[in-house]
Amino acid sequence: MTPRSAQRFAHRSGGDAASLHWRGPVAGFLGLIFGGIVLLAAATTPARADQTDAALTPLFERLAQPGLAEQEARGLEFEIWHLWNQSGSPTIDLLMGRGKQFDDTPRELTQAIALFDAAVALAPGFAEAWNKRATAHYLQGDYPAAIRDIEQTLRLEPRHFGALSGLGLIMVELGETEKALRAFRLALEINPHLSDIAEEVALLETDLAGQGI
Questions:
Q1: CATH number of the domain encompassing residue 16
Q2: Would you state the pLDDT for residue 49?
């Protein structure tokens, strides 16, 4: 992570409900970018919910509206992440839950990836399994693997503003400013309430303008 990116995103903690259970200096920002929100309160789990759930469409339509109060925007994000994280399979949910409990040390990330590998193998159509594995690859510093998993996440769920934001961050770290801007702008088209991403876009645009002088 570049120093500026760390400063821009470190203060995001994913709200009152922590996101991924990974700990470390990048854990807070990863909650928004890759992880989503882990529900701490009990909720009724539908038989099948994930990125194909029809209930997502009105949530995204509402989220795309500018001028929402921050509390409403965060609530819509919460509901979207809740649906994204429901696989409909107790086995997949167990694998995902165990994978998210690991720390961000090399050994534990390897174990987490093995669990997400199993989830992907059992449910290749479940976008969030790919997205969580992308997080682990990112923390390992394996950007090519993280990008591949993000791309698959987006094939399954093109509206995944978390995956798009994560792709943008990786492109920033690789020095691919224009690609980073494209990813961030797509994320903002879907969810214009990502204030940290909007701020990063402004900084990158300033950088590009300066390079053109």
A1: 1.25.40.10
A2: 55
Quick one: average pLDDT of 78-90? 94
Residue 157 and residue 134 in contact, taking contact as beta carbons nearer than 8 Å: no
Question: Residue 117: inside a domain, yes or no?
Answer: yes
Measuring CA to CA, how many Å separate 190 from each of 53, 63, 194? 17, 8, 10
- Tally of domains within the chain: 1
Other C-beta atoms closer than 10 Å to the C-beta of 99 total: 27
pLDDT surpasses 70 at 120 = yes
Q: Report the mean per-residue pLDDT for the chain.
A: 81
Residue 44 lies in a domain: no
76-80 CB contacts, 8 Å cutoff, 24+ apart: 77/37, 77/191, 77/193, 78/15, 78/17, 78/37, 80/56
The answer on pLDDT for 51 being more than 60 is yes
Q: Is residue 213 part of a domain?
A: no
Within a domain: 146: yes
